[in-house]
Recover the amino acids of this structure.
């Protein structure tokens, strides 16, 4: 964080080895494996003015992967690029957060296509979401989010009835933060606990069935 204005993050992801996953009780068979490291970056401008905080950011990731841990056909590659906008307002008893997020993914699926896992050699996928959060007395909160995902049709890759990755709906969540009001426990003031109850409502599947007269 520079001058309380510019935030920069750079990192990389990789896949745990099969032996490590087995030790942790995870079955790695059939999963996608990252070839080497997948670089990740995050850049954001954040401006604070009294109780108001405004943030505009962008982030991305590039990954070469082996579908199903099979490297016989080479690798696929994924390029993700996202943009987000966030506004926050804080007071003694009321906290409000509004968040908008858009993410586009370019999929180059040469390996998956050769292995019969995808019908197209490349696809575009995007998702967007709008989220509102309210927290009362630093303890009791409610979140509501609308999300929408869409992209190119690929029946082999997605396996849906329409062959598309379409999905949209709402996420509602109730939150309780039992130790947040007093700034966290004395032994580590930055730690916290949040208990949540979440419900997801999907709209698109209902619209599809209605359009068919079912």
């Amino acid at each position: 964080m520079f001058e309380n204005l510019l935030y920069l993050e750079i990192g990389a992801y990789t896949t745990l080895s099969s032996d490590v996953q087995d030790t942790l009780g995870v079955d790695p068979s059939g999963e996608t494996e990252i070839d080497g490291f997948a670089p990740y970056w995050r850049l954001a401008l954040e401006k604070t003015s009294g109780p108001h905080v405004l943030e505009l950011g962008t982030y991305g990731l590039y990954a070469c992967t082996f579908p199903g841990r099979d490297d016989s056909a080479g690798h696929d590659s994924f390029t993700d690029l996202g943009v987000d906008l966030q506004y926050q307002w804080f007071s003694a008893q009321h906290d409000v957060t509004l968040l908008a997020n858009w993410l586009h993914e370019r999929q180059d699926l040469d390996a998956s296509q050769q292995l019969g896992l995808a019908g197209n050699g490349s696809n575009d996928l995007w998702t967007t979401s709008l989220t509102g959060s309210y927290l009362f007395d630093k303890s009791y909160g409610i979140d509501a989010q609308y999300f929408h995902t869409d992209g190119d049709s690929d029946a082999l890759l997605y396996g849906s009835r329409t062959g598309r990755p379409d999905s949209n709906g709402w996420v509602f969540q109730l939150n309780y933060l039992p130790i947040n009001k007093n700034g966290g426990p004395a032994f580590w003031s930055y730690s916290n606990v949040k208990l949540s109850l979440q419900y997801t409502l999907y709209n698109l599947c209902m619209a599809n069935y209605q359009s068919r007269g079912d």
